[in-house]
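Record 1 of the preview.
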Amino acid sequence: MVSTVSFDTRDLVNGTGPFGPSEIRELLHALGSDPAMHRDLRLAVKELETSTDRSPAAAVRLGVCQFLLGRHEDSLETLRSGDGGALSLYYQGLAQAATGASDKAEETLKSAEKAGYNATACAVAIADSMRSSGRLSEANTFMTTISEPREDAADYWATKGLILADGGAPILETVATLEKALAVDSGNPAALFALGVIHDRVGNDEEAQACYERSLERYPASVGALLNLGLIYEDQNDFAKAQKCYKRILAAFPDNLRARLFLKDSSASGDLQMDEQEQKQRDRIDQVLGLPVTDFELSVRSRNCLQKMGIMTLGDLARISELDILESKNFGETSLVEIKDMLASKGLTLGQFAEPSFVSSPEPDPIEPSADEQEIYSLPLTELNLSVRARKCTTKLGINTIGELVRRTGDDLMECKNFGVTSLNEVREKLTERNLKLRGD
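->
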């Protein structure tokens, strides 16, 4: 395994030191193991992009890093102004393949080999470009022209395995080829992703998950691995992890429609799960609050005092303050400690659900909304872009405009079945964006 990088990202991107395949491999390792490096790389790239006197060598550094960040079009444009060397041509070819220009990619990668870039790496990249463009037969034939490599053997076997998998070859043959790649490099992301897909298809969820997770330890992360892993997490009802997968895709590719759709569905499902958990928690609390005090061992004095006060359940105790209970005749500190210990055994405290006392004051005269406010209030509720769950609940409550919503309190909304704390927080956030609040907030 490559050791953790000891260089500074900014110095690597903007400096004048060595910048070749070995430095790029170390950078990729660092990006896969330390999320903070992503930010450092983006900042270094931004700094170099603003430079007005960029040399051809600096253009190559910038173009390679733009490619690593998934900005393939920008990378291609930048590399064209580079020094025209082997490294520049190799990454131009990769960028062309990534943007769908397979024929141009193959020509550029052949030029990179002639310029001195690793022959096996160029040939494997050409074969993978053919595979990605759907020319499986041509890719398979081309792979036979590559002698078994001494260098970059892992990428060679991984690409060969991917071609076999896409072509519908027998699973055992495909798996054996991919395992050759992992024997050389146990963390090869392409081989791990392909193995994950195979396990996924035959229902080996645990093995598939392990393969996808290991593949994501390298950079750049595979979009396919993130999507598939997100779906596995959803099946496990771990919607928070699923959403992280989809957000990682959208951070690099904001226009990825599948990731955006999956994130929306996962968020709605996650809200449902949280609401159900909240309801179960409420049911458990209600059950505990309903327990009669006679079920617990209390002194005769404490029992008699509670009976005189009409306190029959733990819920009654949780709704009365310590001051009120001490005002009862013959109820002293000893009984108070006894009661507190009884409540603590069930995770409750005295007065936990007591109603707050306050002095009532006359309602202030309503303030007439301004013309701008009236315009906002008349807007349909769809303008807030609420989640599916929140929209369904507001519809049940007959709320159709923003004005009708702000006239409701949080408690009003919580009365609707399935409208939990998550949905309430969402409504408050959406209103805050428009400098609005629910009544009483």
